[in-house]
Design a protein that fits this description.
four-stranded mixed sheet, about 25% helix, alpha/beta, Arylsulfatase, C-terminal domain, about 425 residues, 11 helices, single chain, Alkaline Phosphatase, subunit A
Length: about 425
């Protein structure tokens, strides 16, 4: 991953928009593949309608060989529309990493469930990398353009990895995040979801260090597998003429704010990595423009000269990558189920909660408090900031078609004195 940063342009303010189910990765990947925002994906991403163009489908129609391996959380029909080739395909969200129920590529696109099998003893990250490497070996000397989608399940739990990687991290030596809490200070609507039950309450330093060691080990292992794929790309003679996009579909709390999972709108769970490298992309540079993962689709179209389909909501980041634009968004909007809504600007972030009629407002100064440790919402001096961000949020409601009505009794914002003028 470090080599991609050196070779490309990194976006430091890339985000997912959120999710309407606890399986945040499902809508996240639907947004990625369709270029559509959260409120324009169907059934939380379980179904991709025929009139929603898929990223590999567009490249396939343009004459590219399209190959997919690994996690595909949006159904066999969408996969069949998208790919001309594939292998070790996992139609699901999570699994034992050493017994992933995968399927071989089916040119008929039927993918019956009785064709699932597992390769016991091979870790998922190695399994998917092997499939990708096999495809790259098959195209040596072939000048047909290709699109390859390598979708790892790691570092999703269960936290399993080869022992040599776990041995790299001594739990006792790992620092505890500065925003660690033993328990979340109020009910955010998802304190008892599956992800949060992976460790007992209250959280302890020892327990979190154990989880962090396993988490870092899984990341290091998948990093090594990415290196294998990049080496195969180089051996195939295509490293220098291939555009690479690297992204993650969400983040885990692992002790931050008293949480373990991803079912929240704090930075640790919605702020994700995004790197582009290859032809037309400056090397070793960073961009702080706001962007979502659903901008990847139109960006790859822009970098390859393909038209962006009308069904996509995202924007091409090519002008930002090439240094000619500061970005298309002045603020970002996030949502999780009907419990949580958030908006952020270059400095501030507002999160609103409504759980069984109990409302909570959080305001963070991300410039001075990037770990979101100090809630400023109750200070009357910040009343103007809360109202301004609420106005921005209402505008996003209109743009996205979000059904939440902030003026209703259910989602009313606490009244804060008006003398704050910051």
């Amino acid at each position: 991953m470090d080599s991609l940063v050196r070779r490309g342009t990194t976006f430091t303010n890339a985000y997912i928009m959120g999710g309407q189910s606890a399986a945040v990765c499902m809508p996240s990947r639907a947004m990625l593949m369709t270029g559509r925002h959260l409120f324009n994906v169907v059934d939380n991403g379980r179904v991709i309608p025929e009139d929603h163009a898929l990223m590999p489908e567009v490249f396939r129609a343009a004459g590219y060989r399209t190959f997919g391996t690994g996690k595909y959380h949006n159904g066999p029909r969408a996969f069949a529309r998208s790919f001309t080739d594939g292998g070790r395909i996992f139609f699901g969200g999570m699994s034992d990493h050493y017994k992933v129920p995968v399927m071989d590529f089916d040119p008929t696109g039927k993918y019956p469930t009785d064709k699932r099998y597992s390769v016991d003893g091979t870790h998922s990250s190695e399994l998917f990398s092997d499939a990708a490497i096999g495809f790259l070996e098959s195209i040596r000397g072939d000048d047909t353009p290709f699109f390859m989608y390598v979708s790892y399940t790691a570092p999703h739990d269960p936290r399993e990895m080869p022992k040599e990687y776990l041995d790299m991290y001594d739990p006792d030596s790992l620092p505890i995040p500065e925003n660690f809490l033993a328990e979340h200070p109020f009910d955010n609507g998802e304190l008892k979801v599956r992800d949060e039950k992976l460790a007992p309450w209250p959280r302890t330093h020892a327990e979190i260090r154990k989880h962090l060691a396993a988490y870092y080990a899984m990341i290091t292992h998948v990093d090594a597998q990415i290196g294998r794929v990049l080496k195969a790309l180089e051996d195939a003679g295509h490293l220098d003429d291939t555009i690479i996009a690297f992204a993650g579909d969400n983040g885990l709390a692992v002790g931050q704010h008293g949480l373990l999972g991803k079912q929240n709108l704090y930075e640790h769970s919605i702020h994700v990595p995004l790197i582009f490298c290859g032809p037309g992309v400056p090397e070793g540079e960073r961009r702080d423009a706001f962007c979502y993962l659903f901008d990847i689709f139109p960006t790859l179209c822009g970098l390859t000269g393909l038209p962006i389909p009308d069904s996509a909501d995202g924007v091409s980041l090519v002008p930002v990558i090439q240094g000619g634009s500061d970005g298309a968004r002045a603020a970002m909007f996030f949502a999780y189920k009907n419990y949580q809504r958030a908006v952020r600007t270059d400095r501030y972030k507002l999160i609103l909660y409504n759980v069984d009629g109990k409302k909570k407002t959080q305001l963070f100064d991300l410039q001075n408090d990037p770990r979101e440790t100090k809630n400023l919402a109750d200070d009357p001096e910040n009343g103007y900031i809360v109202r301004r961000l609420t106005w921005i949020m209402k505008d996003w409601f209109k743009k996205t078609g979000d059904g939440i009505d902030l003026s209703s009794d259910d989602w009313s914002v606490p009244i804060i004195p008006a003398w704050g003028t910051k």
